[in-house]
Structures are given as structure tokens and as C-alpha cells.
Amino acid sequence: MKNVYILFAGASLLASCSSKPDYDATGIFEAITVTVSAETTGKILSISAEEGDSVTADSRIALIDTTTLSLQRLQIMTEQQATESSSPDITAQVASLRTQIGHWQNETDRQERLFADGATTRKQLDDARTQLRTLRDQLSAQLSTLGKNRSSISDNAIALQYRREQVEDQINRCKIISPINGTVLIKYAEPGEFATPGKPLLKLADLNDIYLRSYFTASQLADLKIGQKVTVVADFGADERYDYPGTITWIAEESEFTPKSIQTNDSRANLVYAVKIAVKNDGRLKLGQYGEVRL
Questions:
Q1: pLDDT range class, residue 175, cuts 50, 70, 90
Q2: Average pLDDT, whole number, for the chain?
Q3: Cβ pair 158, 183 in contact under 8 A
Q4: CA 151 to CA 119: how far, in whole Å?
Q5: I want to staple 255 with a disulfide (CB 3.0 to 4.6 A). Which of 158, 171, 214, 271 is the partner?
Q6: pTM of the predicted model, to two decimals?
Q7: The dihedral of CA 152, 156, 162, 165: what is its sign?
Q8: Cα pseudo-dihedral 188, 191, 196, 202, rounded to 10
Q9: Nearest-5° Cα angle at 276, 256 to 262
Q10: pLDDT tens digits, residue range 73-122?
Q11: 137: closest CA among 104, 112, 106, 107?
């Protein structure tokens, strides 16, 4: 009887060792994460999101102090206004000279008529023409000088406008905007801390559309293709498992050694290929959770 029991136990152990797993690959649920960092230097005034909070794309999630930048903008605006107001009014400044030219133009015309009638001398006509020519030369020189002054002032005003726009851009960068619809995974900073360009503030991820990074052996690659529909099984422990429809979205070009936390249906396989399988999250799936794949 004892020998029969031993034979039965041995047969059961052999059968269990040779039985094929009910999955084709395993993996871990992941998501594309975005680290939101500061773009300017200054004191962090507020961070409106906490870990676990949902944020929407284009919404403000943090604010860095803009006091210094706002003062710089006011100073530039004042300089810009003063510069623009100093631009010469060319029409007004040459009005008197144009009046004199008009007068001497009439006088020259009168002298020419009188000279034609023999009622004036050549000298009087030449004097009128000389005076008219002199005034015209003065007008041309004054217009050139005033034009150069206005052009220089205009260039200075444009340069100030560029400086103002740069400062305004920095002010806008103090308003930290969420780039995606997602959930706050990690909060790296708190209000009152000092921010510098590149300092991480929050890590976000879209937990609605996640993926299972699974690993397949070389012998399984022939059965895989981009866009293929598969079944993803999420393991919640205590025999609580749920099936999810999944779609293969990426297959690695190169093999890698099997991660220690991953099992394959071929225990002899040392090299595997990473595969991403997109899964729609119903709210139960968590990042880092274990999952299985059935082809």
C-alpha cells in the first residue's frame, strides 16, 4: 500500500511539473509618466494638486512668485512710453520752414514776372532764387536729421518691446500648466520652497489608458503582431482575477535577459522580447500590479 502511494505521488508531481501554465506571458502594468518641472527661478507660492488628485490638461497646477518680474515689466513699460513720447513731430518742427519756403516761392515767381517785364533787376531775381534754394536745403537737412532721430527712437522702442515680451514670457512660465489629463503620482515640492529651472514639481500619468509591459520568448514572436487583440488577466490576489481586452502596440526590436520578477511559460528561456499591451483601465488597475497575457 505504501508503494502504491509513493507511485501515485510521483505521478502527480511529474504531471504538475510537465503541465503548461495557463498564460503565455506575464508583466507589470505601467503608464506613460510626465514630470512637470519649473521653468523659472523663484519662490513657489502654491501647488494646487496633491498626490492622487486628477488634473486636466492646460490647467494651472502651481505658481511661482512673479513679483520681481512684474516690477521689471513695469520699468520697461515706463521706459517704452518715455521713448515713444520723445519721438519728434516732424510735421510741426518743419512747419515754420515750409511757410518761409512758400513765401520765397511766391516772391521768386513775382520777381520772375517783374524781370520779364523789365521792372526789376537780375540781382533781385537771383537773390530771391538763392533764398528759396537755401531754405529748401535747410528743409531737406532738417527732414533727414529728424527722420534719423525718429528711426533711432523707433528702434529703441522696438528693443524695449522685445524685452517686455521676454519678461512677460517668463511671467507666463511661472504659471505651471498641466500638459496632460492625468493623476498626480508624486509631489516633489511644497509651497515656500525655492524653484529653479528644471526642478521637478510633480509627476503625472494618465491612468485611464495604461499598458502591460510583458515579455515573450523568441519562439512566441511568430504569433505576435502590432494591433493584435489579446486577453490581459489582472491578478488582485486571493484568487481575485479579472480579464481585460488588450491590444499589442509595441514589440521590442532586440531581446533582453528575463527580468527576475517575470515568469515565462518556458523556464529555459533566458532571452525575451518586451511587448507593450494597451489596456483600458476601469479604475481597478494599479501601476506596478502583476498581470498575465493569453494569446
A1: very high
A2: 87
A3: no
A4: 49
A5: 271
A6: 0.67
A7: negative
A8: 30
A9: 50
A10: 999 999 999 998 888 888 888 899 999 999 999 999 998 898 888 888 89
A11: 104
